[in-house]
Design a protein that fits this description.
alpha+beta; eleven-stranded antiparallel sheet; about 280 residues
Length: about 280
């Protein structure tokens, strides 16, 4: 199809269905850090008895797949730019779920400068349509641009406070993190294949953005409540630089009661990999 802002805005993103099993929930939790630092505190996320879904699990539920490949964008140069998750209730296990998605906006930066595409995904129970989560994702289409803008963009995420953080929490990303995380369903070779990474403009495979996002969700709860009794009702952030498996993320946290601001740093190379982060304790 001819690439235009309107054709992307009107693209019928397919619905998707999903039944999340205990195995799915445990695999996801293990792939974003639960059970590494304090296995006992995180046991409810990684043990089938009294199992609770990790707050950010909704990100992988009923995903419509790589639908943007069909719009005509340069798929090899597309990267996840920003992500917002609102959790209405924990993801239920063994219950049919459905997602309905729509494109919200196309923001054109000009020919050879790329564009941003934002879309919304609503996840609900298939039988009763009870809301589970609302996700707004923005993709940076770095190989496109010049097709015009359309739709209404999400409100910008606010910058973190201009002062020192209240808390810091370090999370070590295993060398095999991308190999493990891709078993949740994101099989993009960018994250494991050096040749695919090179075609996308990276000198080596990068970690999935939503893997680092899940680690940040884990770190926020673990830093504030080491017993892991708390949860999250919302979390959002901008992916400001790639992170590589084997690195350590320092999550800086600013807290105002239940409202959290955060960012993620890789101190070893002076990189901010997650920025303008916000979260809300449940």
């Amino acid at each position: 199809m001819t690439l235009s802002a309107q054709s992307i805005l009107d693209f019928p993103v397919p619905q998707a269905t999903h039944v999340v099993t205990a195995r799915d929930a445990i695999l996801y939790a293990l792939s974003v850090g639960y059970g590494t630092d304090a296995p006992g505190a995180a046991l409810k996320y990684v043990y089938e008895r009294d199992l609770v879904a990790a707050p950010t699990l909704a990100n992988i539920v009923a995903h419509p797949g790589p639908w943007m490949q069909q719009t005509g964008v340069d798929w090899a140069r597309l990267v996840h730019s920003e992500h917002r998750l609102t959790i209405h209730r924990p993801v239920p296990l063994d219950v049919p779920l459905i997602s309905r998605s729509r494109v919200l906006s196309v923001v054109d930066r000009g020919v050879e400068k790329g564009m941003f595409v934002s879309f919304e995904r609503l996840i609900a129970t298939a039988d009763s349509d009870e809301p589970i989560a609302t996700i707004v994702q923005t993709n940076a289409c770095r190989g496109d641009g010049g097709c015009g803008s359309a739709g209404s963009s999400p409100e910008p995420l606010s910058k973190v406070p201009d002062r020192g953080p209240d808390l810091e929490f370090n999370v070590d990303i295993p060398d095999n993190a991308a190999l493990l995380y891709r078993l949740n369903g994101d099989l993009n070779p960018l994250h494991v294949d050096p040749q695919a990474a090179g075609k996308s403009g990276f000198d080596r495979p990068i970690l999935h953005g939503l893997c680092s996002f899940g680690y940040a969700g884990y770190a926020i709860v673990a830093a504030i409540d080491p017993s892991m009794a708390s949860g999250l009702s919302a979390i959002a952030a901008r992916f400001s630089a790639p992170i590589f498996p084997g690195e350590t993320i320092t999550v800086q946290i600013w807290r105002n009661d239940a409202e959290i601001r955060f960012r993620g740093l890789v101190a070893s190379r002076g990189a901010t990999i997650l920025d303008n982060g916000m979260a809300r304790l449940s």
